[in-house]
Design brief:
By secondary structure, the chain is α+β, with helices and mostly antiparallel strands. Helices cover about 20% and strands about 40% of the residues. It folds into 2 domains: about 130 residues, Roll (Diaminopimelate Epimerase, Chain A, domain 1), CATH 3.10.310.10; about 100 residues, Diaminopimelate Epimerase, Chain A, domain 1 (Roll), CATH 3.10.310. The protein has a 17-stranded mixed beta sheet that branches. The protein is globular and about 50 Å long. It starts with a strand and ends with a helix.
């Protein structure tokens, strides 16, 4: 299936009934936007004994990603439509994530409690995650994946194509990092752009939106419930005691079948 959340696009393979092998190779091949389908992330749905399904995520370069908020939201909507339920429970490397129909075609996912200690992000050394010793004074947040958020005057003035990879590979982040640039455009209203590790510039990112909202609240720039304007649209983030809740739209674009020619070329 091809799906997207605010232009953050995914190939989703449903392996609940037929196991899939060589997933990393399939993901790398399918990620080619000219020779295959193309995506920002690849998501594999598998059965789980406790949850409605287990999700495993891959970046476009074939590397694993512990979490992907927009893809989780898309799969949750798919499963809720399939069962007629208004809720779903999905297992990821982040743990069990509770998902729900938020009305008006929107889907909500509790992305879990943010990780704020340096060792949990993780960082390479013990530093204050609210003010990293990096030019630009960014904030580090763990949402299953590491995130590095810069608050700037104008996100559209940042050359993200060079700024993103330079910080994705910063030695402070031993597992690399997602990079966000954000600025305040009104009370509890942020504008954000994102560079995702292993993928590049994307139109939206759910976990990055969560990390940016947490960083802004910790800095005192906003409250704990914010609206974020992304290149691909608008998402709502609400940092509660039980976790960071993310609410936004989803689109199921099409269903497809991989041909023997394509699979034979892997």
């Amino acid at each position: 299936m091809k799906m997207h959340g605010l232009g953050n696009d995914f190939v989703v393979v449903d392996a609940r009934h037929v196991p899939v092998t060589a997933v990393d190779r399939i993901a790398r091949a399918l990620g080619d936007r000219r020779r295959a389908v193309g995506f920002d992330q690849f998501a594999l749905i598998e059965p789980d004994r406790e949850a409605d399904a287990r999700l495993t995520f891959y970046n476009a370069d074939g590397s694993l990603s512990a979490t992907c908020g927009n893809a989780t939201r898309c799969v949750a909507r798919f499963l809720m439509d399939e069962t007629g339920s208004t809720a779903a429970l999905l297992r990821t490397e982040r743990g069990l994530l509770a998902c729900a129909d938020a009305g008006d075609g929107l889907t909500r996912v509790n992305m879990g409690v943010p990780l704020l200690d340096w060792s949990d992000v993780p960082l390479a050394e013990a530093v204050d995650t609210l003010a990293l010793p990096i030019e630009g004074n960014p904030v580090a947040t763990g949402m299953g994946n590491p995130h590095c958020t810069f608050f700037v005057d104008d996100v559209d003035a940042v050359d993200l194509a060079s700024f993103g990879p330079a910080h994705e590979h910063h030695p402070m982040f031993p597992e690399r990092t997602n990079v966000q640039v954000a600025h305040l455009i009104g009370p509890d209203h942020l504008r954000m752009r994102v560079w995702e590790r292993g993928t590049g510039i994307t139109l939206a990112s759910g976990s990055s939106s969560c990390a940016t909202a947490v960083a802004a609240a910790r800095r005192g720039l906003t409250g704990r419930s914010v609206t974020i304007e992304l290149d691909g649209g608008t998402i709502q983030i609400d940092w509660r005691e039980d976790g960071v809740h993310m609410t936004g739209p989803t689109v199921h674009v099409f269903d497809g079948v991989l041909t023997p020619d394509f699979l034979g070329s892997l």
